[in-house]
Amino acid sequence: MSKAVVLVSGGMDSCVTAAMARTTHTPAFLHVSYGQRTERRERQAFEAIADFYGVRERLVVRFDHLAQIGGSALTDPSIPVPEDGAALLHARRETESAAAARIPVTYVPFRNAHLLAVAVSWAEVLGATAVYIGAVAEDSSGYPDCRPAFYQAFQQAVREGTKPETHIALLTPVIALRKSEIVRRGIELGAPLHLTWSCYQEEEVACGVCDSCRLRLRAFAEAGVRDPLTYRVPVAR
Fold first, then answer.
1. Residue 12's closest CA among 195, 205, 211, 226?
2. In what order do the strands lie in the sheet with 130-132?
3. To the nearest whole number, what is the mean pLDDT of the chain?
């Protein structure tokens, strides 16, 4: 099988994406720390997932500039992480244009472009034919760099900005799935969901009230499967 670079944050979506990538490619795992609140715990999850799959080729990159730029509750400790679930409620009820005006404060400005750039660079060096990223569009917090149009545009940039003999496909296999469908797909593939971490603000026990915890709890509840993580407030809303 040809090689693929898989962006693995340590979260559920990237874990299932990695499981899907392994069915068609030999994976090389890439993890990016960018000064997020839970970077230590996410790195731990990344290493555990990579060990689970026996991935030898792994690269960990640190983007200090995203924390220096700030502008997100994930990288700026002066901006509280929302705990009321309001952003998710708006994302589900509003049109795309209306929701765009309510991008949550946990959005890290243009983060996925930075992640994809380093992934494509490494893929070109490795001779990989694909880059996988676990972006989710429909059932997410409404981040603009998780939409299909963004990846279509970035794919064109990859074509224009790499060597003529380089052919790298940007693959987003879970982008159209609901979170509950991602849970079910992960279970079908035997993905190590018990090793993943989703909480935006805690590293020991997941808070259960941030947007990411709420999405995860709701996904497992809708899938009819017990979430293997422990939560401080284990209530899906």
1. 195
2. 58-62, 26-33, 3-7, 130-132, 169-171
3. 93
Structural contact between residues 198 and 206, judged by C-beta atoms closer than 8 angstroms: yes
Residue 15 forms beta bridges with which residues?
none
* Full set of structural domains in the chain with CATH: 3-192 (3.40.50.620)
* Per-residue pLDDT reduced to its tens digit, 128-167: 999 999 999 976 678 999 999 999 999 999 999 999 999 9
CB 43 within 8 A of CB 35: no
Q: What is the pLDDT of residues 35-52, one digit of tens each?
A: 999 999 999 999 999 999
Q: Which residue has the tokens 């243009």?
A: 110
Task: Extract the tokens encoding 52.
Answer: 């689970």
Cβ-count burial 9-47 (b if 16+ within 10 Å, e if not) = bbbbbbbbbbbbbbeebebbbbbbbbbbbbbebbbebbb
Rounded to an integer, what distance in angstroms lies between the CA atom of residue 136 and that of residue 150?
12
Cα separation, 114 vs 157, in Å, equals 13
Instruction: Name 61's bridge partners.
Output: 32
Task: Return d(Cα 98, Cα 199) in angstroms, integer.
Answer: 26
Confidence band (pLDDT; 50, 70, 90) for 86?
low
